[in-house]
Amino acid sequence: MKEENKKTSTAKKASTTKKTTTAKKATTAKKATATKATTAKKAVAAKAVETKKVEEVKKTKKFKMPSAFTILLAIIIVLALVTHLIPNDKGVTGATLANVVMSPVTGFVEAIDVIIFVMVLGGFLGIVSKTRALESGIGRIVKKLKGKELIMIPILMTLFSLGGTTYGMAEETIAFYALIVTAMMAAGFDSMVGAAIILLGAGVGVLGSTVNPFAVGAAVDALSKTIPGFVPNQTVIITLGALLWISSLLIAIFFVMRYARQVRADKEKTILSKEEIEEAEALYGSKNKAEVFELTGKRKLVLTVFAICFVVMIISLIPWGDFGVTIFKNTTHLLTGVPFGEWYFQELAAWFFILAIVIGLIYKMDEKDIVSSFIDGAADMMSVVLVIAVSRGIKVIMDSTGLGNYILENAANMLKGITGVPFTIMSYIVYVGLSFLIPSTSGLAGASMPIMGGLAYQLGLSPEVMIMVFCAACGLVNLVTPTSAVVIGGLAVSKINFSTWMKFVGKVLLTIFIVNVIILSMAMMIL
User: Which residue has the higher pLDDT, 286 or 343?
Assistant: First the structure.
């Protein structure tokens, strides 16, 4: 009986154990299945994320703006093709393959004075950079202006605009980009703020030229030779120029300061791409804060010479003779053989070269350091140099084929029969197109004013207002045109893509355009 009970108990235990084992196996199988399902879901999700990223990358690549070189070369090719669509009896010669191939090279030759200046400037900045004087000086200024950095923006933009309205400050501004961009980044802004201060500051000054000899002077001279006995009313020109200048400057300051506030409050609000930020930070960012704020005696002396260098540059470029000032005529020609007021890129290149060596000696750099720093600085400007050369190639192909004159004459013919306000607006639009093709202010003045100004005079309209229509439209376009070495060169130094600049400046241009047209239309009605 006992034995029988024992067998029953053993059987029950075995059954229970078997059930438990089976249950455990089932649970384990369920867990394994669930784990596989979870893993599969994660894999699907990961693949979906990866696919999405690939698609985003593809989209980004698809809409990526080409480089400045590609844009400029494309413009040259398109213009060459256009010459073959115009009948031979219109004065336009079809561009040959040789014209296209040689235009950038010829552009390099024609722009050699600017190119040498830019390369010497790069060498100069290379030696200054080696001393760390700029970083220490800017660091000290930023520290003193803590919380008031925004005030630098309207002050600097006003100063640059004064240069633009008085003597057409343009290519000369390239010398200031490294300094201003560094200062703005140290103040908590980005490189776009620095570039906009210079490009818009000097640009709106040129737009509202008052006594600028390269715009107003060239236009008046061309018009005087076209209209017998014509004596321009300088009061009208200066007053109208001042209105355009001040109104455009206020608009530009508003937009730059608004953007600067946004970026300083939230770095994510920057319009720059990650690559642009990294490039600017690598070149102009403060890597060693301890060294930045250490303004030693030698660095103070370097900064003093640096400041003198730019003050002399500005004084030397102002056409003093046009204002009746003769004090510099016989006292400032010893160094270059040319007095202040008549200096240009060749004299400036010599001046910056001499001061680069002086700064190297002040900082007690040896000969090898001076030479290597100069070469490294010049090398950094190589992309700027090539952009300037290719952009000048557009002018070369326009001149060699006669396309520029053809476009100008047909634009003038379109305006015949239009008077008053419509004539003013249409003239402005025509000059916008012409300025894109002929970015040289003085060149466009000489080529167009005899036709456009003469047409205004024949219609009984004010030639003085037409001069300012030319200045305003040309100035507006030269804030953005890729055919301008000033725009492309400045952006290249600031490490900003042309497409990014277009996104930033679009609203600014539209606002300035509307205000310009209103002022000029009212002037044409009154005068």
Answer: 343
Sign of the Cα pseudo-torsion (301, 306, 309, 315, in order): negative
> Residues for the chain: how many in total?
527
- What is the per-residue DSSP string for 34-99? HHHHHHHHHHHHHHHHHHHHHHHHHHHHHTPPPPHHHHHHHHHHHHHHHHTTS-GGGT-PPPPHHH
Instruction: Tell which residue, 441, 446, 517, has the closest CA to residue 479.
Output: 441
pLDDT, position 290: 39
147-182 residue pLDDT tens: 788 998 999 899 889 888 877 778 778 878 888 898
CA triplet 60, 436, 83: central angle to 5 degrees?
Answer: 95
CA quadruple 337, 340, 344, 350: dihedral sign: positive
Percent of the chain as helix, strand, coil, to the nearest 5: 80, 0, 20
CB 81 within 8 A of CB 100: no
The helix/strand count (H/E) of the chain reads as: 22, 0
* Cβ pair 289, 342 in contact under 8 A: no
Q: Residue 365: which of 132, 45, 57, 117 has the closest Cα? A: 132
- Residue 446 burial (10 A CB sphere; 0-12, 13-18, 19+): middle
pLDDT of residue 63 exceeding 70, the answer is: no
Residue 35 CB-density burial (10 A; 0-12 exposed, 13-18 middle, 19+ buried): exposed
Residue reference for tokens 């192909």: 397
The pTM (predicted TM-score) of the whole model is 0.67
**Domain definitions of the chain by residue range:** 111-212+225-388, 399-526
pLDDT bin (cut points 50, 70, 90) of residue 125 is: confident
